[in-house]
Amino acid sequence: MSQSPYIFDVTADDFDRYVLENSFHKPVLVDFWAEWCAPCKALMPMLATITESLGGDLLLAKVNCDEQAVLTERFGIRSLPTIVLFKDGQPVDGFAGVQPESAIRAMLEPYLGTAGEAAETGGKEMSVVEQVSALIETGAYEDAIPLLQQAITAQPDDTLLILLARALAGTHQLDEAESVLGAIQDAEAQKQAIAGVRAQVTFTRQALDFPERAVLDERLATSADDSEAVYQIAVLDLARQHHESALAGLLDLFQRDRGYADNSPQRTLLQVFDLLGGDHPLTIQYRRKMYQALY
């Protein structure tokens, strides 16, 4: 449950009271979401930011669709996230999927009047970079791509291109990701970020040719010293953005069989550090462990 008085969870039992009745006094935005839905989780902080910026002139009700199937059926929800705006007891507007914050505010404005205009000028809107970064961090690459393409068309920017390349790599559009990296203007300034995306592309390409995880797990169960299986599992984890488990596997292999495949454990660890960035907690932790193992 949110700490904000303007944001709350609703169920089938109290929906009419908290949403429909309140909507006669002020607009109520209803967020139909689920725990497994990555775009839902990326959209939530944006909706919360908008709601808080309006200081009580908008309410945000959250419906967990896994727990509230009655409401999902009642309103014909077919995809997540779905956002529905209620006014005077009726649904009056809404959208499905992830939208830029500016588009959501524009949808709300006719129902908010002067309050919406004041919030637009006085509130701090999330930037496109913040929005798509949140989507990418939750694995919602397909939702991030159109937002990035729209922003880049309006104003090309190297930071946006880096994010687009990351999102394309996340959807296995690897050649396209490489092409986007080639369009970056100041490659020297973006050197580390480019290296990180290229590492992700490399891991994903490698993983496409590896056996399934279950097959590799069986090999390790038979022989715990199977360095190839350990390495391939780590790369599969990297392709799926499971960085911590991959780093743990690579470090174990580095300590046990450092020279495997022409020093692949150490080279891959360094690539992961590039991918995560020098300030990332996992980079700091595992770089220290790697150098302790070296010396």
From TrEMBL:
Q: What gene does this protein come from?
A: trxA
User: Which GO cellular component terms, listed alphabetically, does the Swiss-Prot or TrEMBL entry include?
Assistant: cytoplasm
Q: What is this protein called?
A: Thioredoxin
Question: What PANTHER family does the record tag this protein with?
Answer: GEO12009P1
Q: Which domain of life is it from?
A: Bacteria
In this record, what's one Pfam family? TPR_19
All copies of domain Thioredoxin, residue ranges: 1-113
One GO biological process this protein is involved in is: response to stress
The protein's UniProt keywords, in alphabetical order, are: Disulfide bond, Electron transport, Redox-active center, Transport
Q: Which family does it belong to?
A: Belongs to the thioredoxin family.
